Amino acid sequence: MKVCEIFKSLQGESTHGGKICSFVRLSGCNLLCSYCDTEYARTEVETWSIEEIVSEVRTHRTRLVEVTGGEPLLQPETPVLCKRFLELGYTVLVETNGTMDIAAIQPPIIRIVDCKCPSSGHEGSFLEKNFSRLAPADECKFVISDKADFYWALDVVRRETLHEIVPVLFSPNMTLLPPQELAKWIIEENAPVRLGVQLHKLLWGDRRGV
User: Fold this and answer.
1) What is the mean pLDDT of the chain?
2) In degrees rounded to 5, what are phi and psi of residue 95?
3) In a designed cystine with 4, which of 41, 76, 183, 199 is the match (CB 3.0 to 4.6 A)?
């Protein structure tokens, strides 16, 4: 498999935020979002076997693992890797940009699906049938850069009744939008979502491997 980095840290996003987690960041992506903070994952590549990845993660002594990217579903071996972690008793998260069929990875794997807002430069990239594939343990995330993004995302949530299916997180693009401002909009609109803040950035800034 094409691997960018493997490390142990605290889960910085999702409803699992704050938990100790092993991260397997796979290389390659089919999008280039305007606010991408892991652009290095597009080009930094090492080749690992599935068992080499698993062996490295086991040295962390964690029980939660996230397979991320880049875009992990670009690699056909990703479902096999996730299944291997399940066999070993891990809780498995996969973060995906929503452009590929999430049916490739099935529950109890937890799919954190990112729906791209207009400011990302990839509005409309989301694979519509993924809305109907979401399971209750999955999560849907929107990165919000401005008020136009906020109302666009809120319209998607209400149109698809996402909040009745999965936890929905609105996360600020922290280079453009203060979390306090997004929090104010959520409260004003009684938005049926959770505020998500990148905990790892609050703790360590833009450092890698955390």
Assistant:
1) 96
2) -100, 125
3) 41
Q: How confident is the model at residue 112 (pLDDT cuts 50, 70, 90)?
A: very high
Global pTM value: 0.95
Q: CA dihedral in degrees (110, 98, 30, 123; nearest 10)?
A: -150
Nearest to 114 by CA among 79, 78, 86, 149: 149
Count of other CB atoms within 10 angstroms of residue 49: 12
The domain ranges of the chain are 2-204
pLDDT of residue 3: 98
Q: Are 123 and 155 in contact (CB under 8 A)?
A: no
Q: For residues 35 and 173, is the Cβ–Cβ distance under 8 A?
A: yes
The b/e string for 153-165 (b: 16+ C-beta within 10 A; e otherwise) is: bbebbeebebeee
Phi, psi of 171 (to 5 degrees): -115, 135
**Six-digit token string for 89:** 């008793």
Which residue in 67, 85, 54 sits closest to 28, CA to CA? 67
Q: Starting from the edge strand earliest in sequence, which strands make up the sheet with 110-114, in order?
A: 46-47, 2-10, 20-26, 64-68, 91-96, 110-114, 139-144, 168-172, 194-195
